Amino acid sequence: MVTGRFAPSPTGPLHAGSLVAALASWLDVRAQRGRWLVRIEDVDLPRCVPGADRLILQQLAACGLVPDEPPVWQSLRGPHYEAALRRLVDGGLAYGCACSRKDIALAQAALGRSPERGVELPYPGTCRPERGGLRGLTPRAWRLHIDRCEQNWPPRLVGAAQAAIHLEANHRGTVNWSDRRLGPQRQAVAEAVGDFVLRRADGLWAYQLAVVVDDAAQGVTHIVRGEDLIDNTPRQLVLQRALGLPHPTYLHTPLVLAEDGEKLSKQNGALALDTSDPLPRLRAAAEHLGLPANNADTVPDALAQWVGAWRERWATHADA
């Protein structure tokens, strides 16, 4: 069954940009007569705002976006992430890292790399087992070994991988895949991000591991989310392959921008979504997604019309 999900972080209430992503994921599933889920991604507990999760669910319900199953909270799923990490470590695909941020900066400087504003330089592999490992130090974090993942990938896609995903590995872990809206994508993961973190130095689970484990556990087949998350997709494809999990299809929606041209977000003061009169908010979100205007008087009628429009535009190309 086609299964999609909306996975907000409860760092505050939904805003206009959040509604665009939520509406798109809901429409994509409804257009294919599938199952829509909500997952509260509260794995980064220090950033979460008390009560924001409940408020988000209330905002979604006011807009007619009700999940088909009870929501899942990532903060309750630590044992599942621990099991996945143990599989990777036991298979030689993950390793402990003792480096501090200062250590990493010094190692990068020694390689002639200078940091750029807003860009995280790839990890230089200092604690890789073949380079001496931890040397008696205590691991601070755990990282995925990109090169070993590439060496151990099976020749074909695993599980129920959709035809829209074209994943292959070659020099430096290059991943090729196709987004349903943006078309062919390519990233050399080893060069762009290096051995990325699976469990952080503060003991919290990294987003990449949590989302991959949960998508597989919930049977998610179609991921529709904001374009700001597209850079995460290659890492998630690599991790799915390393864990032997199926690959969903992906569609990344256009971002809602603030007046300064930056992505509208809670960090730059985006206003909480006012759902006291949800129809105007939904119409604005639908317009941003390129859907035709409608004159429906109720939320259910408006959503029903947009489901048909979405089916004509996107759902028929889900597996293209």
Automatic annotation (TrEMBL):
Transferase found in the keyword field: no
Pfam families linked to this entry: tRNA-synt_1c
Top-level lineage group: Bacteria
Cofactor binding comment, as recorded: Binds 1 zinc ion per subunit.
Keywords linked to the UniProt accession: Aminoacyl-tRNA synthetase, ATP-binding, Ligase, Metal-binding, Nucleotide-binding, Protein biosynthesis, Zinc
EC number: 6.1.1.-
Binding site for Zn(2+): 97, 99, 123, 127
KW Transmembrane helix (keyword) present: no
Motif position, 'KMSKS' region: 263-267
Residue ranges of domain Glutamyl/glutaminyl-tRNA synthetase class Ib catalytic in the record: 2-105, 169-273
Motif ('HIGH' region): 8-18
Binding site for L-glutamate: 5-9, 41, 207, 225
Cofactor: Zn(2+)
Protein name per its UniProtKB record: Glutamyl-Q tRNA(Asp) synthetase
